[in-house]
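Mods, move this if it's the wrong board.
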Amino acid sequence: MSKILLVDDDVLLGETLQELFLARDLNLEIAHTAEDGLQLLNAFEYELILLDWNLPGMSGVALCEQYRKNGGLSHIIFLTSESDVSKKEEALDSGGDDYLVKPFDERELFARIRSVMRRSLNSFSEEMKIGELHFKIDSRVIACNNKTVQLTPKESQLLQFLLRHRDRPYTGQRLFDAIWPSDADVSAQTVKVLINNLRDKLSKVGQRDLIKTVVGSGYVIENRD
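Not the wrong board. Structure tokens:
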């Protein structure tokens, strides 16, 4: 999975979740207000949004409604202490995909994330497959032709993103926005270097041509299934 956005004014919760996500090689970014969250959503791509209901200023529900109105398609899970059924109904009707009541166990959070991501073609699983290539996400290992290679965390994030968005070309800038932290101090050339490094590792298992370059459009993995 690529970038995830947490919009919550609970600083301690944010720090705790950031550690949990980092341990799973997941990139969690944090906004403490709905206004800051919308600004990030307008500038960068996120695959998942974890959204608090009770935010200072604009509420989480209002943010969700505005984001959907603007055409936002990322999955949204509400994280809130509001346990009333009517509140859950309002959150889901505003465009949310799921609702988790605080306090929650980390196992339930990640189970909810897996469940939400499975609802679309961009499924969330422990292993991804295309043709003869197997990609184990937890260990970051690709395998094909009886050969295995381990990827770096960034190579893994890039491969996951392209596999979850098959047949859709992405420019280097869009890949940068989707994978790197929003405040990353790196150049666009970094994406090209990462693509080349990933292709080199794919070539070691006989899959160098998996990532194709589309002139004028960017990089794409074409569906083989």
